[in-house]
C-alpha cells in the first residue's frame, strides 16, 4: 500500500514537471515573437514561472475545492480577488524585472510582447484558467463516478431488500398451502380411503413445483395451470359431493410466463374462506390471455356481506404483485349477493 502511494506520488510529480516544462516552452515561444534575444526571453519566462505555478496551485488546491465546490461563494470571490491582486502585482514586477535587470532600462531592448502588461497577464492567466478548468472537469467526473457507484450500491441494497421481502412472503405462503393439503390427506388416511395414494401423487407433483420451480423468477403459465389442476383434484377428493367447481382456460400461449405460485394462493383462499350454500361450495375459475394481458377471475360462495382482504393469502398476494408487477397489474375484490369475486389482470412483461 505504501509502495503504491509512493509510486503514485512519483508519477504525479513527473506529470507536473512535464506540464510545467511545456508551459515554459510556451512562454519562450510566446514572448520570443519578433525577437532573437533568446537569453532575455528565457530569463523573463523563468521569472514568470513561480508566479504562474503559485497562482495555479492556489486556484486548483485551495480556491476551487475549499470554497467553490463547497458553495462558499463569498469566500471564494474574496480570496480570488486577493489572489488576483497579488498575482497582478507580481506580473507588474516581472515587467519591471525585464526592463531593469534584463534590458538595463532600455525599453527598446525588451521583447515586444513582454513590454505589454496586458499580454503578460493574458499569458499567465491563460495557463491558470486552462488548468483550473481541467481540474473542475476532473473533479466533476470523479464526483459523477462516485455518485454512480453510490446509486448502484443503493439500488443493489434495495434489490436485496426486495428479494428478502419476496422470499419472506413466499415462506408465508408455502406453509399455509402445505398445511391445508396435508390436513386433507390426514383425514383420508384416517378413513383408509382408496383415494389416498392418488392424493399423495398429486401432492408430490405440487411439492416438486413448490421446491424446484418457485425460486425461479418466472415459470410457464401452462405449468402454473397444470398445478392448479392438481390442487383442484386434491380439493375435489376432500369435498367430494359438496364441491361444485368449474375451471376454464382460454387462449393460453405455450411460451407465456408468469411468477410462480401467483394464482394458486387465490384458489386456495377460495376453498379456505368459501362457505357452503345449500350444502355446496361453488367455485368458478377462468384464466385467459388477450392483447398481451393475462386475465384471471375467480368467484366462490361466501356468507360475508363485506369484501374482506384480510388473511395471509390475499395480503401476501397483493404485496407480491406490488413487488413483481408494480404498475403492471390491476386487482379488484367484490362481494355481491354472497358471491366473493377476484379479478386480476396482468400486463405481460
TrEMBL record:
InterPro entries membership: Bact_2-comp_sensor_kinase, HATPase_C_sf, Sig_transdc_His_kin_internal
Domain of life: Bacteria
One GO molecular-function entry: phosphorelay sensor kinase activity
Pfam families, alphabetized: His_kinase
Keywords noted in UniProt: Kinase, Membrane, Transferase, Transmembrane, Transmembrane helix
Assigned GO CC terms: membrane
Domain Signal transduction histidine kinase internal region span(s) in chain numbering: 165-242
Transmembrane spans: 12-32, 38-64, 76-97, 117-137
PANTHER family tied to this protein: SENSOR HISTIDINE KINASE YPDA (PTHR34220:SF7)
Full protein name: Histidine kinase
Originating species: Flavivirga aquatica
Amino acid at each position: 500500500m505504501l509502495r503504491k502511494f509512493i509510486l503514485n506520488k512519483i508519477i504525479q510529480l513527473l506529470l507536473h514537471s512535464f506540464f510545467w516544462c511545456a508551459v515554459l516552452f510556451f512562454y519562450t515561444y510566446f514572448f520570443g515573437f519578433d525577437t532573437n534575444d533568446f537569453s532575455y526571453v528565457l530569463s523573463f519566462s523563468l521569472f514568470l514561472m513561480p508566479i504562474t505555478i503559485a497562482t495555479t496551485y492556489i486556484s486548483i488546491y485551495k480556491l476551487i475545492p475549499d470554497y467553490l465546490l463547497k458553495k462558499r461563494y463569498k469566500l471564494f470571490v474574496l480570496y480570488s480577488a486577493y489572489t488576483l491582486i497579488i498575482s497582478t502585482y507580481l506580473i507588474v514586477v516581472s515587467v519591471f524585472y525585464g526592463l531593469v535587470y534584463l534590458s538595463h532600462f532600455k525599453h527598446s531592448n525588451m521583447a515586444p510582447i513582454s513590454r505589454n502588461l496586458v499580454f503578460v497577464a493574458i499569458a499567465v492567466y491563460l495557463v491558470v484558467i486552462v488548468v483550473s478548468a481541467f481540474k473542475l472537469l476532473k473533479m466533476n467526473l470523479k464526483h459523477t463516478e462516485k455518485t454512480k457507484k453510490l446509486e448502484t450500491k443503493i439500488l443493489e441494497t434495495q434489490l436485496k431488500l426486495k428479494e428478502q421481502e419476496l422470499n419472506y412472503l413466499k415462506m408465508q405462503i408455502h406453509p399455509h398451502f402445505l398445511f391445508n393439503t396435508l390436513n386433507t390427506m390426514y383425514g383420508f388416511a384416517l378413513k383408509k380411503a382408496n383415494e389416498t395414494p392418488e392424493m399423495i401423487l398429486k401432492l408430490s407433483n405440487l411439492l416438486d413445483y413448490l421446491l424446484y420451480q418457485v425460486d425461479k423468477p418466472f415459470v410457464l403459465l401452462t405449468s402454473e395451470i397444470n398445478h392448479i389442476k392438481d390442487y383442484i383434484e386434491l380439493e375435489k377428493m376432500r369435498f367430494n359431493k359438496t364441491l361444485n367447481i368449474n375451471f376454464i382456460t382460454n387462449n393460453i400461449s405455450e411460451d407465456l410466463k408468469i411468477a410462480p405460485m401467483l394464482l394458486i394462493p387465490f384458489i386456495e383462499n377460495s376453498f379456505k374462506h368459501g362457505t357452503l350454500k345449500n350444502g355446496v361450495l361453488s367455485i368458478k375459475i377462468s384464466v385467459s390471455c388477450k392483447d398481451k394481458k393475462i386475465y384471471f377471475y375467480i368467484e366462490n360462495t361466501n356468507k360475508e356481506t363485506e369484501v374482506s382482504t384480510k388473511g395471509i393469502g390475499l395480503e401476501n398476494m397483493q404485496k407480491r404483485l406490488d413487488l413483481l408487477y408494480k404498475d403492471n397489474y390491476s386487482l379488484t375484490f367484490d362481494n355481491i349477493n354472497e358471491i366473493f369475486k377476484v379479478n386480476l389482470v396482468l400486463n405481460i412483461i
